[in-house]
Amino acid sequence: MDFLTLTFAAFFIISVLCYYVVPKKMRWGVLLISSIVFYMWSVPYLIIYLLFSAVTTYAYGRWAEKNKKHGKRILALVITANLAVLLFVKFYPLAEARLNLPALNLLVPMGISFYTLQVIAYCVDVYRGKAEVQQSFLKYLLFVSFFPQILQGPIPRYEQLKTQLYEGHAFDYRTAKFGLQLILWGLFLKMVVADRAAIFVNAVFPEYHLYEGTVLAVAAVLYSIQLYTDFLGCVCIAMGAAEVYGIHLQTNFERPYQAVSVKDFWRRWHISLSSWLRDYVYIPLGGNRKGKLRRYINLILTFLVSGIWHGSGLQYIFWGLMQGGYQVTGEILQPVRRKIRSILKIREESPVYVLWQRICTFVLITISWVIFRASNLRAGLSMLKRMVTDFTPWVFFDGTLYQFGIEARSFFALIFCIILAAAAEHYQEKGNIREMLERQHIIVRWSIYLGAIALIIVLGVYGPGYSATQFLYGQF
């Protein structure tokens, strides 16, 4: 079931009504039934994978509660079993093609990458004594399968959700309103910005060798915007849906394209994944406790794991190594940058210098996204080479950019909506926009609501010739 369908809208409305109608102590049951229905809607048998993860990790938690000795071996066994399932369903199709293995026609279960990390975190936290063991399997299954976040995250920790999921919330108009606002914003980002940018990106990337380097650069920038607005749009819908139930999910993005370094970017991008990698990969490897060289190695290994988690192609490994290399290089060059600023008398907090840092960071991240999006590593490197060696700025003026599925008016509409989203992010940096909006007159508020709905209807999925695409991060 997709967030962008009328089926989901009807399902969500029925679920919310049932949630607030039944007694408080039974409301977690409504969430569990809703989550199971959501998960089984398309391919029912795929829930076997989810149940495997839930049963094995729940059993570990109950076992670890009573058996403190040899806990590390059983923990390693449970983690290995769950990772084996994840790696099998993700990598077997690749091996199947390259090694001529028997065709299994595997379907990747919805959200498997996300809930696998979620249950591993639960087991490790139980082992470390940081998480309380859940006694009820059905309540634990709700934690694993909670439908707003299972599709693309955020990746929750048990301690963050255990009380919220099970206590039952009274209806609160303000909280529900904020949730619906977040859903509306997510729909705008996905259907108007991301899906419109995707038309250009999907036309250029597969046939990159046919186009000028500047066209490829425009496609690269639009892909950076598409990926962010697509992922953020899904997360906003997930957070908004959960908020209607009175449940607050972890914030997953903090305006990453306003970052002033790659390190700062990863503090802002996919925060739940970044914090997971920090707590369960980087720190166990030794973190920064064993000297600079070991710290740099740990950083690179951590991002290598991130690359492998994202996909099975060689380009994902290269992308992970790039992210780790960016951070190591940035730290090594920090004294040089500090010296240059001192010589040129540039204040670090100067608006011009901050803008320069943001542009440089965006360029570095966009270069890595080209590798991430390309069909393979060779294609990604070839695209980057053409961007540098085939500079053709006249494409901005001769109408070339309007030949990739987006006519001139649609292209400028996309630019306008990108600027609108960027302006919202700018104001969000200064304060909570939903709270700012609440202080406005009712006419102003409803003008904004209706304007957003109109933009979605006219420029989004219901516009002429356009159709919504699946959320990008769903494939990971």
Identify the notable features of this structure and list them briefly:
single chain; 476 residues; 2 domains; 19 helices; globular
Question: What is the secondary structure topology, with strand pairs?
Answer:
Elements: H1 6-21, H2 27-40, H3 47-66, H4 71-98, H5 112-128, H6 137-145, H7 147-150, H8 158-167, H9 173-204, H10 213-244, H11 262-268, H12 271-285, H13 292-310, H14 314-344, H15 351-373, H16 377-389, H17 408-430, H18 433-438, H19 442-459
Question: What do you see in this structure?
Answer:
- The chain has 476 residues and is an all-alpha fold.
- It folds into 2 domains: 6-171, no CATH class; 175-475, no CATH class.
- Helix content is 71%, strand content 0%.
- The chain contains 19 helices and no strands.
- α9 (173-204) packs across α17 (408-430) and α10 packs across α16.
- The protein is globular and about 65 Å long.
- The protein starts with 5 loop residues before the first helix and ends in a 17-residue tail after the last helix.
